[in-house]
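Sat 14:20. Reprocessing the chain from the morning session after the first attempt stalled halfway. Input below, unchanged.
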Amino acid sequence: MKNTKIEPLADAVKQFEYWRTTRTKRGPIPTELLELAKSLKTQYGITKIARALKVNCTQLKNHLSSTTILSEPFIECPVQPPLTLASAHGISLSFHCKNGLPVTLNGLQASDIASIIAIFMGENMPCFN
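Finished this time. Tokens:
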């Protein structure tokens, strides 16, 4: 059986490529991507990471050696009385995961929204944790 688990470095490469193709202007690498690279440091080494991610090795080394504390963004999802939205095609819920990938759920009913948010905010959802 073929192993379908994505290597952490290959996953990081995909996330950096996605960021490069979707950014609207040149600018610094997002903190989330730098933290992703930092998490790979002990497993792969800075030189290998820099080559794979196509970034300057010295700049990456400087970023990775600095200590940064990320604060988790606050996401408010107030639960209100049942919604009275009506649509022949249901409700669409769109958001971006922590890794920057977009997610869209179509055809939802108003009564589904609160439980879907609870599922996605749960401990086992890598999209947000």
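Residues 22 and 127 are 18 Å apart (CA to CA).
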